[in-house]
Amino acid sequence: MRLYPLFFLMILMCLGHTATRAQQIDSMMNVYAESFPKEKIHLHFDKSAYNKEETI
Fold it and tell me: What is this structure's pTM?
């Protein structure tokens, strides 16, 4: 019976640490996304469909 409060206290401590770590990871990912934006490529074809062995 005495282990339950200790067990719940340990769980709360782990959850608090996990939330802080998640925020740090999220911040690092935002810095990376701002430093290296995504490049987009657009392809334009002269036909909507091609047959086998046709050159695009």
Answer: 0.38
